[in-house]
Amino acid sequence: MYSGALTKFSPTRAAQMAIPIAVLALAATETARRSLTVDPASPKYWAKRAAEAEDRNESPVAALTRAVELAPREAIYASRLGLAHEAEGELVLAEFALRRGAELSRKYEPQWNLLNFFFRRARWEEFWAQAATALAISYGDRAALFDLCSRADGGGAERLERILPEAHEVRFRYTAILMGRSEYARAGVYVEDLAGSTSGEDVVVLNAWCEALLENFEVGAAERAWKTLRSRGLLTEDAPPWQTPDVKGATVHGMPDGLWQILLTGEQPEQCTLLTRVVGSHGRSRLEWTIEAKLSASSGLTWLVESYERSPRVLARSGELRRGTGSLDFDAAGGPLRITLQFKRPLGSVRAEGRVTIKDLRVTEPHP
What we know:
The chain is α+β, with helices and mostly antiparallel strands. The protein is built from 14 helices and 9 strands. The protein has helices spanning about 5-10, 10-40, 45-55, 60-70, 75-85, 90-105, 110-120, 125-135, 145-150, 155-165, 170-180, 185-195, 205-215, 220-230; strands spanning about 250-255, 260-265, 270-280, 285-295, 300-305, 315, 325-330, 335-345, 355-365. It has a 5-stranded antiparallel sheet with strand order 1-2-9-4-7, with no helix packed on it.
C-alpha cells in the first residue's frame, strides 16, 4: 500500500527537504552562539564587553573580572585579566592572575603570557624556571620563544640550550633558527645530534645544513653528521660530496661508481675550477685517479690541494694531467683542506675542446 507513496518520494525530493533542515540546524547553532554573547550570565558576554572597552581605549578590567568570576577555572579569562592589570600598572594583581591562568591550563598560551611578564619585569630566575615549562609544552613555530630566551639576562642562548628539551622536533626548530642567524659553530653541534635522532623525514634539510656548515668552515661537524647519516643508511652518496661549480663552456657529470665525465667546448674561461671537494684532517694522504681524454689540445688540467680556511695555503699541486693513472701525496695534519680540479689554458696553446673521463677518484687512508 505504500509503494505508490515511496515512488513519489524520490531522492531529489528528499534532497530538497534536507536543505531547509540543514539551514534550520545552522541557524539554531548560530542563535545559541549569539545567546552566549548577549547573556550576562555567560563569561563570553563579559569577554566581548572587555574587547569592546579596549576598542574604545577604556579599561577592560571590570568586564574581565566578571568573566573570571563566572568561569573561575577558565585559564583564558584569568590570563587576559592579568595582562589588563599589567597594562594599568597593577603588577601584584597582574602576577596573581597570570599565575592563576598558568596553573589552570597546561596549554602554551597561558605559560607564554606568564613568561613574558617575568621578562618585562626583568625577574630572570623566575623567567628561566618558566621558560623550561614553556619549552616543554611548546609546539609548531617557536621562533618567538627562542628569541625571547636568547635576549634574556642570566644566561641567554647558553642557558636556553641547557634547558632545551631532548625532543627531535624542538631541537630541529632551534637549529633552523641558528642556521638562519648564521651561527654555524653553535648549530653544528645540533646538526650532529639531529643526524642521530632523525627518522628520515628531514634528511634533505640536514644534508643542506651540512653543506652550509661546510661552506662556512665547520668541517668537523658536517663530516660527523654525514658519517652518522651514512651509517644509518639515510644517505648513500659520498660526504662531503664532490661539487661541480657552474662554468660556462664546461659540463661536469657525476656518473655511477665514482665516474666523472667532463665536456669542454673550448669556450670555457682561461682559468676555472671544474671539480672541488673539502676533506677533513687525516694526516698524510693520497689523491688517486685514472684519466681518459680525447682533447684537441693540451688538457690544461691540474689538481690543487690547499688548506681550507679564509686565507688558504697551497699544500700540493700536480703537474698537467695526462692519460693513465696518477696520484698526489699531501699532508692534511694541519686541519681541513680543499681539493680542486682546475683548468688553465697552457701558454702558447688554444683552450682544449673535447671529453675527459676521470675514474677511480678517491682520497686514500692516511699513509704511515
